[in-house]
Amino acid sequence: MQRVRVIIIGSGPAGLSAALYTARAQFETVVITGPQFGGQIATTHDVDNFPGFPEGVTGPELVERMKQQAERFGARFDYDLVTEVDFTQGTPFTVKTQNDVYVADAVIVTNGATPRKLGVPGEYEFTGRGVSYCATCDGFFFRGKNIVVVGGGDSALQEAIFLTKFANVTVVHRRDTFRASTSLQIRAKANPKINYIMDTVVEKINSETGVVQSVTLANVKTGDVYDFPTDGVFIFVGYDPNGGIFGGQIAADADGYVLVDQLMRTNVEGVFAGGEIHDRIWRQAATAAGDGVAAALSATVWLQERADQLEPLPLPAAGAAVADA
Ligand code: NAP
After folding, report:
1. Whose CA is nearest to atom 18 of ligand 1?
2. What DSSP state is assigned to residue 127?
3. pLDDT one-digit tens code per residue, 129-159
4. Ligand 1: which atom is nearest the Cα of residue 158?
5. Does the beta carbon of 235 lie inside 6 Å of ligand 1?
6. Residue 118 Cβ contacting ligand 1 at under 6 Å
7. What is the largest CA-CA distance in the chain?
8. Does 283 contact ligand 1 (Cβ within 6 A)?
9. Catalytic residue list contains 134
10. Mind listing the pLDDT tens digit for each residue in 75-115?
């Protein structure tokens, strides 16, 4: 059992920024990273819109630098998964991981969201064998091949553009207009390696060899159903918040997004949240980072207000003093 001041669940930009602030405020902070250190942005190739990187930065480099910055002020990282929490008794809160149990005065929930599945036959079976949810991770394996990208949002078009570095791409979208930003639509349409099949859904992913060979497509307007040969299927149809571990102990909306007030406080006093676990609208690395900072500042104020009730804990190793940003 480890007794700490602040547990941060999740290690995306929200969690990493929160860790920087709580550690720098001299609160012993442990980040439970979850299955993917750095969260979704860590699987993104070119990050062009995180302030402070005029030439852009890769997702893995961005999160590594954020981690190092938090570590400089004493934040610790546990590469583990949270399996269960107990928020029912109020502070201090119990957070169980696969390998440990933490008791923390404050918890900051930043465990993000997970790519949504299509739920069609063949999707699960051929994941990793032609079906992918991560262009950065898997695009390289499709050099010189033909692939399908499913979806019509920013993720689908952004990843389709990236994937043309390796492959010829056919974007399959269920409507006749895109949800993606105009600028991404213009870039995608100017790319000669991208074709489009609109008003169409994937009904099935097929293979007789163990790796994807085709998709069965259905035109939702004409009713036409046909097989379309492809070597891979990249699915970008949105994300679902990772709220399962909370077992309903913190208030969430009907889709599972955690509800917070303006100060990033959940309905449980001492539990704060930020990033995609609560934000269904902006979902940017920079907005998540801002959320994490706000959640950490709220947690800091809350902890300072009850300083006389806090059990003494060893201070984190502080880094050099620097001016506030
Ligand atoms: P999204 O905006 O929710 O788009 C999901 C897309 O998948 C939509 O086009 C949707 O179709 C389609 N879809 C959903 N379920 C489907 C299903 N079962 N079968 C077929 N198609 C399905 O998700 P996103 O593209 O991942 O973007 C999420 C958020 O992140 C957005 O706010 C976006 O702006 C942001 N984002 C920003 C950037 C950037 O700024 N560079 C990059 C990536 C993401 P409909 O359109 O018909 O609903």
Report:
1. 118
2. B
3. 999 988 877 899 999 999 999 999 999 999 9
4. 42
5. no
6. yes
7. 70
8. yes
9. yes
10. 999 999 999 999 999 999 999 999 999 999 999 999 999 98
Instruction: Name the E strands within 110-223.
Output: 113-115, 131-132, 146-150, 168-172, 194-197, 200-206, 214-219
224 catalytic? Reply is no
> Which stretches of 73-222 are DSSP H helices?
135-138, 154-163, 182-189
Contact 259, 246 (CB under 8 A): no
The answer to whether residue 138 is catalytic is yes
| Nearest residue to 92 via CA among 5, 16, 154, 19 | 5
The pLDDT tens digits for 89-98 are 999 999 999 9
pLDDT at 44 over 80: no
Q: Is 285 in the pocket of ligand 1 (CB under 6 A)?
A: no
Is the CB of residue 155 below 6 angstroms from any atom belonging to ligand 1? yes
Element (H, E) at 20: helix 13-24
From 43, 57, 154, mutation site for ligand 1 pocket: most ligand atoms within 8 A of C-beta: 154
Q: What is the pLDDT of residues 195-224, one digit of tens each?
A: 999 999 999 999 999 999 999 999 999 999
Domain 131-235 has CATH 3.40.50.970: no
Considering the chain, tell me which residue range(s) the CATH 3.50.50.60 domain(s) occupy: 2-114+239-309, 131-235
Task: Tell me the CATH number for domain 2-114+239-309.
Answer: 3.50.50.60
**Per-residue tokens: 260:** 């917070």
- Ligand 1 nearest atom to the CA of residue 238, by list position: 23
